[in-house]
Design goal:
The protein has 203 residues and is of the alpha/beta class. The chain has helices spanning 17-26, 37-40, 53-62, 66-74, 84-89, 185-198, and strands at residues 7-11, 30-34, 45-48, 79-82, 90-93, 106-111, 122-126, 136-140, 145-149, 154-159, 162-168, 171-174.
């Protein structure tokens, strides 16, 4: 495995891009904003941040990154979605807005705004499978939850009886926002996923 820092992009169309860039850098990655296909082609992995999932999907189409992103995810590029990013990685949305598209990549069905509206946002301790050091502080802002998953999906965390973190192969997703807490363990997990995915090319 190469010791060179993995290059991880953050889809910078909407959402808390700066916070993800900071968290990725703290996790040892070379982090950069991605808006266009040529920028996407230059990264080893990508974070899909929170925001408004319908808006992000429409902007991704407008900027010409939706189809290249789908192709790279299908080809195995590591990807991590938080909140709206989780919705973007779903194969199916229970209550999609008109014109809303997803990237896909995780065999799951999700429900938008499942934990309530903006004024019902909250923080909660969440035990995440595979992370040492105790629970992470999950920030839930108009957060979705995962209604169901396919056989190939690993459930990493639940809160209040609902699935809030999953992984399938090189795709990782959380309903909550770890980038807002100063705890960079989830981003470190993703950076390790990216390093592992690059390992065969470096031999």
């Amino acid at each position: 495995m190469t010791d060179e820092a993995p290059v991880i992009g953050v889809l910078a169309l909407q959402g808390d891009v700066r916070e993800h860039l900071t968290a990725l850098a703290a996790a040892g990655a070379a982090a950069r904003a991605v808006r266009r296909p040529e920028e996407l082609a230059a990264v080893d992995g990508l974070v899909l941040p929170g925001g408004e999932s319908t808006t992000i999907s429409k902007l991704a189409v407008l900027f010409g990154v939706m189809e290249p992103l789908r192709a790279r995810v299908r080809a195995g590029m590591p990807v991590y979605g938080t909140c709206a990013g989780l919705i973007m990685l779903a194969e199916k949305i229970l209550d999609p807005r008109a014109g809303q598209e997803t990237v896909g990549g995780i065999d799951m069905i999700v429900r938008r705004n499942a934990f309530g509206r903006q004024n019902e946002s909250f923080e909660a301790a969440v035990e995440v499978k595979g992370l040492d050091g105790g629970p992470v502080e999950g920030v839930f802002i108009r957060a979705p939850w995962v209604e169901s998953v396919g056989a190939g999906v690993e459930v990493l965390a639940e809160y209040d009886g609902h699935v809030v973190a999953v992984r399938q192969g090189n795709a990782l997703a959380t309903s909550f926002h770890p980038e807002l807490t100063g705890d960079h363990r989830v981003h470190a997990l993703f950076a390790d996923m990216v390093r592992t995915s690059r390992a065969p090319e470096s031999l």
